Amino acid sequence: MEKECTELKTECTHEPILDEVRGEYICSRCGLVIEKQYVVPSYQMNENNTNNFNSSKHYVALGKRLNMVDGLGSFIDYQYNSRFSDASGKSLSANKQVLYKRLKYFYDIRSRYVNQETDYNIFNLLNRVVNHLKLSDNIRDRAAYFYNKITSEVSKEDITNHIILIAMCIFIAIREYKHNAPITIQEIAEIFENLGHRVSPRTIIREIQKVKPIVGDIFTTKTRKSEDYINRIVSKVINSNKVLDRLFKYKEEVNNYKIYLQKKSYEILEDIKLKIRGGRNPYIFAVAILYTGDQLLSKIKNRRAILTQKILSEVCDCAEYSIRDHYKFIKENYIR
Predict the structure, then answer these.
(1) What dihedral angle (degrees, nearest 10) is formed by the CA atoms of 108, 113, 117, 123?
(2) What is the C-alpha separation between 194 and 132, in angstroms, rounded?
(3) What pLDDT, on a 0 to 100 scale, did the predictor assign at position 91?
(4) How do 33-36 and 16-19 pair as beta strands?
(5) Which residue, 181, 178, 330, 177, is CA-closest to 264?
(6) Are the folds of 117-215 and 226-333 the same?
(7) Are 130 and 141 in contact (CB under 8 A)?
(8) Which fold has domain 226-333?
């Protein structure tokens, strides 16, 4: 038999072609297998919607992620794909489609978070809060890292409320990014309240004091400064319709006014050191700094101010009397 095969190989003079699916050289005319050729297996991260497959592909989706519960780390086919194909790209039969769809459903839904229901719900909440606050993925992942680290090092008896814990983790992650995420603790608490959870600034601070001695000093962030809020407040002010109307009324160019407010605010803050500011709320103090800068500009141009305490109160969501009190302090320490 071997002799016959060798004779056939030598007798076949047609041009061979490579079957990349089976890894064999085949005669293009008679279909005779001439020899085997090992083909390097390919690896594909993106989905291929065409049916013209030349080789066996290994389709995978990203597995365990930091900010969610991901089961065993992979999916049956793509995460959101409901049509299944074999290695050569041909669609499976109807019965197998039903079978794999059922297997995929039970794996993707239940097996993904079995015995991890708490973490699953907490990470869903984390993603919703991040989406509402429009925070970056880096902050989301940092908050998830803090949560995973704390829950792995702290016993279950010491964690009384996972919702307050994730709120604390978001707060700490935001603090690390300073002016890139100028969100106040009150805003974090309000988002949780809007989502139906009882979280307050006091409970977040209390959770930090409770967890910090157990996990060590992983919270190395410093207290917020008014400088961290300037860009955000300027952006909110410039996008206010009332402010835009007043800028148009006094023939002020919007971009120039924005640049002036930012530059002048940082100049004033540079002159008022942290020790002089004392324990004043950095966010409200930053609002008062903007008000001061606008007051100085109005004196230079000999016209009425663009910003009023009422407008700033509405735009920046802080009380008029607080702005007035902080402005009085700034006037005494900065404006001579």
Answers:
(1) -80
(2) 10
(3) 86
(4) unpaired
(5) 330
(6) yes
(7) no
(8) Cyclin A; domain 1 (1.10.472)
Tens of pLDDT along 44-67?
Answer: 444 455 555 444 444 444 445 666
Domain 117-215 has CATH 3.40.190.10: no
CA distance 92 to 304: 75
More confident residue, 332 or 46: 332
Specify the amino acid at residue 70.
D
- Quickly state the pLDDT bin for 216 (edges 50, 70, 90): low
* Percentage of the chain lying above the pLDDT 90 cut: 26
Closest to 317 (Cα-Cα) out of 191, 244, 233, 203: 233
Identify the pLDDT of residue 219.
59
For residue 11, what are the β-bridge partners? none
* Domain spans, the chain: 2-36, 56-112, 117-215, 226-333
Q: Are 34 and 13 in contact (CB under 8 A)?
A: no
Express each pLDDT in 253-278 by its tens digit.
Answer: 999 999 999 999 999 998 888 888 88
